[in-house]
Design goal:
This protein has 170 residues and is mostly helical. The chain is 64% helix and 0% strand. The protein has seven helices and no strands. Keywords: Membrane, Transmembrane, Transmembrane helix.
């Protein structure tokens, strides 16, 4: 049994090649603009619009814009649903090991069932529970921030003739 299991770890494919330098530069600029604008909007509106998972969202939205995980439905839906779940876990069970574990694990299942899988959103329950967030967190930063990120990705990714974003909406 152990030997058969260990054979699963044999490498069967090579790692994908690195993207062209222009793709990487474009990805860097997109993320730079997105995070900068969100921070500026936060300061101007005097309301938090930035959470750590948005950094990982930028990796997908600008680095892998063709990925199903980077589509608007996944970014907005994934962040919104996992935030709701995180808030429910926190307000029903508090900051406990089991609320953290249930928040993340149930978020995975919920995103799969709703076809909104967005890996960065899986961190939302942790952020919400560990910070003791209130229900307003759902609107700001989660909803507003994710919508702003998608809007920037829509504008920026379509400036290049080599990119088309999104691949699908629903």
């Amino acid at each position: 049994m152990p030997k058969k299991y260990l054979t699963k770890f044999k490498t069967v494919e090579r790692s994908p090649s690195a993207p062209h330098v222009s793709h990487s530069v474009y990805s860097v600029l997109g993320a730079l603009i997105a995070i900068s604008l969100i921070v500026l909007l936060s300061k101007t509106a005097a309301t938090p619009l930035l959470i750590a998972p948005f950094g990982a969202t930028c990796v997908l939205a600008f680095g892998l814009p063709d990925s199903p995980l980077a589509q608007p439905r996944n970014i907005i839906g994934g962040h919104l649903l996992t935030a709701i779940l995180g808030l429910l876990c926190y307000h029903l069970m508090g900051n406990t090991w089991y609320s953290l574990a249930l928040g993340v694990s149930l978020s995975i299942g919920l995103m799969q069932i709703t076809r909104t899988v967005h890996p960065p959103a899986g961190a939302n329950p942790l952020v919400i529970i560990l910070s003791g967030a209130s229900w307003s967190f759902l609107f700001s930063p989660v909803l507003i921030g994710s919508v702003v990120l998608v809007a920037i990705a829509l504008i920026f990714n379509n400036l290049s003739s080599k990119r088309k974003y999104p691949k699908y909406w629903f």
